[in-house]
Fold this protein.
Amino acid sequence: MNTSQTRNLPYFQRGCFLVSDLDKALQIYQGLLGFTCTKLSVDDPDSYSYEIFNIPRHIQTRFATLSSADQVRTLALIEVPGETIQSGSMLTASTVINVSDVSKVLGDAKQLGLTTLEIRDHPATEAGPGRKEAAFYDHDGHPVVIYEVTL
C-alpha cells in the first residue's frame, strides 16, 4: 500500500458527506455498496469538521471512515443528527462507484426504499468498453451513481 511519502501527487484522499443518520448511511455505503467501516467515533469538540461544514458547535457529531479493498479511508461520513442535509433543487456533489452488478445493487436500493433512476446501457465504442449505469439517492438526498463495465 502506498503511504503519503511514496504517493504521486496530487492524490485524492477521500470524499466526505454530511448525513443526518449515520446508521442509515452505513446501511447504504457499507451494506449495499460494500465499503468497510474502518473508524467510527464521536467527533471532538475542536474537530475541523465543525469549521469546514459550518456545523453549530453545540451539535454532537459522529464520524465514520470507510475503506475499499484498494484504498484506505476512501469515504468519510459525518452525522449531524436532526438536521436537513440537502436543501434547494440543485445538488452539489455525488459519488460514482464501480460495482460488480448494477441490477442487484439497484434492486437492493429499491428494497431500502431509496429513490432510484433507471438503468442505462452504453455500448462499447472504439474509445472503450461498454457500461451499464444507474443511480439512487441515499437517505439524505446524496446522488450515488453506480456502474459496471460490460464487454
Remarks:
- Residues 86-151 form a domain with the 2,3-Dihydroxybiphenyl 1,2-Dioxygenase; domain 1 fold (CATH 3.10.180.10).
- The radius of gyration is 17 Å.
